[in-house]
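Now for a chain:

_____
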Amino acid sequence: MMTLYIIGLGLGGWKNISLSALNILRKCEYVFLDAYTSYIEINDIRSLEKEIHKEIIILSREDIEEKNILLDYLDRKIALLVPGDPFMATTHQSLAKEYIEKGGNIKVLHGPSIICAAMGSSGLHSYKFGPISTIVRPEKAPSDSAYKNIVDNIQRGLHTLLLLEYDAQENYLMTPFEALNIIENLKNKYNKNIPRDDNIVIIMSNLGYENQKIGAIYYKDKIKAKEYGAPAILIITGKLHFTEKEYIKEVHKLDIT
């Protein structure tokens, strides 16, 4: 049996991957790309094809989750490129488990995760984050559990990192403003004053790329979220330590006492 290399592309494009990962890609017979669990610039991938001198085969959700076509290449040396860090998506864990059960070998090359990068760039203490949630369009799935998680985290003084919906098939990326409107509607539905007007929301768009934008607003000023594009991540803060307040004030340029 040959080896499946699961390689994290990290953030900011393929030029940030390690030299060892690049060498492996050049030696693999086939290279695949998961382009649906997280947003990725396809033009950037086309640039990588020129660097490794081979086509990168783009896989859909059906290719990975239903068919797992990588099992057809158990006797080949292949690589699967994934956005961010491998195994942050449970899809990749299931894929690896099935591949090993069929007798294949797995080698993982990690890349920076959007979650770790967002926590670090926020200036907030990583141990003060509660469970992570995802906000999706109401017509696709309810975000009630995500809202309840926000409420629970704030009541416990914890910060909430929110991933925003990405639909590869529809080429859809949720904007920060849209996400905050969904949260506001859920706030009204449950008749709760959480998030409060004075809760701080840290917004990060295009994190890791040259055009990244990071800033902080008060929840009451959510109209300002229109200034941020997608893909993006939101962090709704809980109880702030004085060093967190200083970072938000000095780095994110929010007037905070």
